[in-house]
Write a structure and sequence with these properties.
Shape: globular
Structural class: alpha+beta
CATH architecture: 3-Layer(aba) Sandwich
CATH class: Alpha Beta
Radius of gyration: 14 Å
Order of helices and strands: HHEEEEEHEE
Strand order of the largest sheet: 1-4-5-6-7
Length: 128
């Protein structure tokens, strides 16, 4: 079983394959569906649009938070197709990590010339 870092390396390789084949400029959903397909084809357990509830005190709120892709129930993938990643995108990914109690996430912006420029690792420092 791969740890989060090993798993993230494998996911990045597959994301690079998707980006090489499609290039920048498509809708976020296109990249999500193609990466989902590649992950499944590579025998990873992957959930698409995983619902994450917000728990406040004793109240469980279904606020519509959804992780784009959750790989092996431990790696959060947030996919974007924007001109540039900003602090709100990073905060969103970190929020998903905290709400789901996950350790590591990848924020992947496919709307770049070279995908390595569009990948940010996000770590949940509060993970036990």
């Amino acid at each position: 079983m791969l740890n989060e870092n090993e798993l993230s390396n494998q996911v990045i390789k597959l994301a690079l394959e998707v980006h090489t084949a499609l290039g920048p400029g498509l809708l976020e959903r296109s990249y999500k569906e193609c990466l989902f397909y590649k992950l499944q084809k590579s025998n990873f357990v992957v959930e698409k649009e995983k619902i994450v509830p917000l728990i406040f005190e004793e109240v469980r709120l279904e606020c519509g938070y959804r992780i784009d892709l959750l790989v092996e129930n431990k790696l959060v993938i947030e996919i974007k197709s924007v001109s540039e990643i900003n602090d709100v995108h990073l905060a969103q990914t970190l929020t998903y990590l905290k709400l789901g109690n996950y350790k590591l996430g990848l924020l992947v912006n496919f709307n770049v010339a070279h995908l390595k420029q569009g990948i940010k690792r996000v770590v949940n420092g509060l993970h036990p």
